[in-house]
Amino acid sequence: MAKTIAYCFASGHIQFGSSVPEGAIGIARGEDQQVRDVIEVTARLSVFDNATLFVPGVPEAASQREGLVALARYIQSLGERNGPGFRAMGA
């Protein structure tokens, strides 16, 4: 099975890949389909295209600090879903 990492940028935009690119923060890792399934049901959809995934609370944050708090909260909530094939990073 392919391993995947979910990561986000300062905007809260979530993407998937085999590594975390420079300037991004890792959110979760594990089996590709499990990571995608968990992120897709917990992330916020863009109001513009109803497809782009965002960390809940980050796009609405009034400051970078508020955005980081929202990201930490999201990773913590993902940690409750840790199990075979899925692990929140830093949780």
Would you give an account of this structure?
This protein is globular. The strands form two sheets. It has a four-stranded antiparallel beta sheet. The protein has two helices and six strands. The mean pLDDT is 95. With 91 residues, it is of the alpha+beta class. Strand 4 (44-45) and strand 5 form a beta hairpin. It has one domain (3-88). The protein starts with a strand and ends with a strand.
Q: What class, by secondary structure content?
A: alpha+beta
Distance between the termini: 23 Å
Catalogue the unreliable spans: none
Number of extended strands = 6
**Helix content percent band:** 25-40%
Number of domains in the coordinates? 1
Number of helices: 2
Shape: globular
Largest sheet: 4 strands, antiparallel
Beta-strand content estimate = 25-35%
Q: Tell me the Rg in angstroms.
A: 12 Å
Mean pLDDT: 95
Strand order of the largest sheet: 2-1-3-6
Topology (elements, then pairings):
Layout: E1 3-8, E2 14-17, E3 25-31, H1 32-42, E4 44-45, E5 53-54, H2 64-79, E6 86-88
